[in-house]
User: Fold this.
Amino acid sequence: MGLEIGEIRHSFGDLMALDGVTFDVVPGVITGLLGPNGAGKTTLLRIMLGVLSPDSGSVRYDDRAVDDEDRRRWGYMPQERGLYPGMPAGDQVVHFGRLHGLSRSDATRRAKALLEELGLEGRWKDRTDKLSGGMQQRLQLATSLVHDPEVIVLDEPFSGLDPVAVVSLSETLRQRARIGCTVLFSSHQLDLVQDLCEDIAMVDRGRTVLLGSVARLRASSGRRQLRLHVEPSNRDWLSAYPRVTVVSDQADDLRLEVPDGIDPLDLLDAARAGGRVDDFGLDLPTLSQLFLAAADRPLDQTVVS
Ligand SMILES: Nc1ncnc2c1ncn2[C@@H]1O[C@H](COP(=O)(O)OP(=O)(O)OP(=O)(O)O)[C@@H](O)[C@H]1O
Ligand SMILES: [Mg+2]
Assistant:
């Protein structure tokens, strides 16, 4: 069931943009196609949508090869946006609804509901090019959802959105997943989307470097960090723990990487014996930390935020 991306390879001349990418998108499970700029995300989504033909590999949906007929029913938001600048916002959504075969009244009803859902109520008559960048992006999203697609593929839907719009788009995607849609979106902002994605396919230079459930990947990495707000003067207690790495130590904030086999609560006790602890927490690694470890890249070569 769902989407199956199988061993996709694609080159642009000498550049191997995709070098055997394989993953599934399960209906109802929001899946992130993540990776830094140039990783191959857009190339893969274009292949899935039939805009590009792969050199090899397969895209299957519900256990059969995908054809153009299937793709016409999908909702796709490309990274390079394509709206008519002079058209009023509402008419634009109706127009795309009509292209997907909706009657005028159904398209109008859906357009109204979507503009409201995406925080664009009251903007129906505004010319598209008079909307802000983030609003145009939400309008583009409305055009890709107007026909209630069961497969939703969005390329960088979060880039350029303010924090309120990020929350609202996340809720829109969660709601579509809850009713059983197959939802795949790409992002280079790994930490921004780590709470939204349930599953990820993380790509780097055309290869998959991390795959599967975010919760499992974060919990099983063996890389927990203990965060302590302690008096800066005393760090002597740390010398009893040579396997513990100091990740950062700024002002009163100390961040330690706690390897397997060491109980973070023992460290907390030791810190409290050495001085006053005002605040503490145990953090799982972020997706960008997991990416850096998996891709084995120096920090300055990687664009993740
Ligand atoms: N039409 C093209 N011709 C030649 N090279 C291309 C073309 N499209 C993409 N590439 C190259 O393929 C690689 C992957 O590009 P792609 O756009 O898929 O990356 P991406 O992961 O979507 O990046 P971003 O986060 O910047 O959107 C890059 O090295 C890019 O320069
Ligand atoms: Mg891209």
Observations:
- Confidence is low (pLDDT under 50) at residues 299-305.
